[in-house]
Structures are given as structure tokens and as C-alpha cells.
Design goal:
Distance between the termini: 11 Å
Low-confidence stretches: none
Number of helices: 11
GO molecular function, one term: catalytic activity
Mean pLDDT: 94
CATH superfamily of the largest domain: 2-enoyl-CoA Hydratase, Chain A, domain 1
Shape: globular
Family: Belongs to the enoyl-CoA hydratase/isomerase family.
Largest sheet: 6 strands, mixed
Oligomer: single chain
InterPro entries: ClpP/crotonase-like_dom_sf, Enoyl-CoA_hydra/iso, Enoyl-CoA_hydra_C, Enoyl-CoA_Hydratase/Isomerase
Number of domains: 2
Protein name: Enoyl-CoA hydratase
Helix content: 40-55%
Order of helices and strands: EEHEHHEEHEEHHEHEHHHH
Number of strands: 9
CATH topology of the largest domain: 2-enoyl-CoA Hydratase, Chain A, domain 1
Length: 272
């Protein structure tokens, strides 16, 4: 594995097959600064080809996941007057975040979000692009943008994909905040923990399941799921059949079949 990047706003720790990425700006409830956006993007770019990392665990320091965008960056963008023909600084700010969250959404790794405390705005969007989301008892989720006179410009499409248009409309248009129980009911998160200990137990179980699944097959499956609803069904199934044929003839497919017949764990389920 390559040496991990040095980050100012993130704490990176490799544990077995998982890279734990902690958003580390607890004094502002881990509000998403431009620097944090750039560092998250760089981390996901670096690990994309790293086969030793199969899952990414996103969590916030100090009991909060992420309270949204950084007010200082917003104020800085407001103070910049774009010259004629230049992009608006607010546009650049939004698109930098949008590109990062799209990158996380499309990562070949299994992304696990631990949602605690404030999961607001951009933080809510980040939770919505995770593959597995676990909420702690303190978690509060919300899209407060309309109450601030702005719009959830980069997260709204991902929220719609997560929970459907009907529920997204209610949350966004009323600027609501919901607790962990309702978030679980809506499908924002998959599991709700009653304590810190239970969070760690659920996380451990999720990482262990990642370990049991073949890395390349997992990445191909995630990519296939993202294509559903965006392509014609017959074309998608044709492509999926081709990918299945490739997978079953691959080293992973051979090892998985052999391991099943020999009643043993496959090679990818051991070691790191």
C-alpha cells in the first residue's frame, strides 16, 4: 500500500481492509471547508487503485459527522467579485463539493458512514452517497438550505436517489431536521445504534462482510447498481451478462467456486 497522504483536516488510519477517514474540524462540527473537500477528493483518488483498501469508513471527530459548508469559505466567496467572463466564486465552491461527493458516490470501495450529531447540508449529502450508513443515537439529519435563503444545489440529486422524490421534497422544501429513528425509516441510514459500543459492533460486522466479498466483484456490482435506471433495461442486461462471463472466468470467480466446493473461506476473506 502507498504511504497515505498527509492531511490537515482529515485523520487517516488503515485498519485491516478498511481505511478510516475522520473529518477533523471538531471546533466547527466538522464543517466542510474547501481544504477538506480537496483532501477528501485526493484521498479517494489515491486509494482507487489500492487493492489492500476495500472499504472506507467516514466519521466525524468530536461527536459530529459534518455540519455542512464552512461559513468562512462562504464569506470569502461573497467578498470576491468575478471579473467579466470569469466563473462566479460561489459556482466554483459548489462545484468543487459536488465533484467530490460524486467521486465518493462512484468510488469502487465500499463506503461506510457513521452518522453522529450534526449530519446537515453537505454532511447529509455525504451520508447519502455511502453504501452503508449507521446512525448513532445523537444523529440529527437535515437540509436547512431553504431556511437560509439558498438551495441544496449539489446534494439534492443524491438525496432523491437515496430516499425518492416524495420524501426528498418534504425534507428540502420544509427545511426539516429528523432524528436517527426517522432517518432509518426513510432509508437515509440502514441501521441505528443505541450506543457508542453498538456503533462499533455494527461497524465491525459491516467491515467483516466486506472482507468476505471479492474485491473486483464488489466493485463491478457497485458500478452495475449505479447504472440501473439510467440505461435501457435490455442494453444493461446485455452488458451485465458480459461482465458476469468475465467475472466467472476470472481468478476471483475460479477461487470463489473452488472455495465453495471445498467448504472453505475464499482467499480474499483472510489476511488484511
Amino acid at each position: 500500500m502507498e504511504t497515505l497522504l498527509h492531511c490537515e483536516t482529515l485523520i487517516l488510519e488503515k485498519q485491516g481492509p478498511a481505511l478510516h477517514v475522520t473529518l477533523n474540524r471538531p471546533d466547527v462540527r466538522n464543517a466542510m471547508s474547501l481544504e477538506m473537500v480537496a483532501e477528501l477528493s485526493a484521498v479517494f483518488s489515491q486509494i482507487e487503485g489500492d487493492t489492500s483498501i476495500r472499504a472506507v469508513v467516514l466519521r466525524g471527530a468530536g461527536g459530529h459527522f459534518c455540519a455542512g459548508g464552512d461559513i468562512k469559505d462562504m464569506a470569502g466567496a461573497r467578498g470576491q467579485k468575478p471579473a467579466e467572463g470569469e466563473e462566479d466564486p460561489f459556482y466554483r465552491l459548489m462545484r468543487a463539493f459536488g465533484q467530490m461527493i460524486q467521486q465518493v458516490n462512484e468510488s469502487s470501495k465500499v463506503v461506510i458512514a457513521i452518522a453522529e450529531g450534526a449530519v446537515i447540508g453537505g454532511g447529509f449529502g455525504l451520508a447519502c452517497v455511502s453504501d452503508v450508513a449507521i446512525a448513532g443515537p445523537s444523529a440529527k439529519f437535515g437540509m436547512p438550505e431553504t431556511t437560509l435563503g439558498v438551495i441544496p444545489a449539489q446534494i439534492a440529486p443524491f438525496v432523491v436517489e437515496r430516499i425518492g422524490l416524495t420524501q426528498a421534497r418534504r425534507l428540502a422544501l420544509l427545511g426539516l431536521r429528523v432524528d436517527a429513528e426517522e432517518a432509518c425509516r426513510l432509508g437515509i441510514v440502514h441501521q441505528m445504534a443505541e450506543s457508542e459500543v453498538e456503533i462499533d459492533e455494527l461497524l465491525g460486522q459491516a467491515v467483516e462482510r466486506v472482507r468476505m466479498c471479492a474485491p473486483n466483484a464488489t466493485a463491478e456490482t457497485k458500478a452495475l447498481l449505479h447504472r440501473a435506471g439510467h440505461e435501457s433495461m435490455s442494453g444493461l442486461l446485455d452488458s451485465a451478462a458480459e461482465k458476469f462471463a468475465t467475472a466467472i472466468r476470472s481468478d476471483e470467480g475460479s477461487e470463489g467456486t473452488l472455495a465453495f466446493m471445498q467448504k472453505r473461506a475464499p482467499s480474499w476473506a483472510s489476511g488484511e
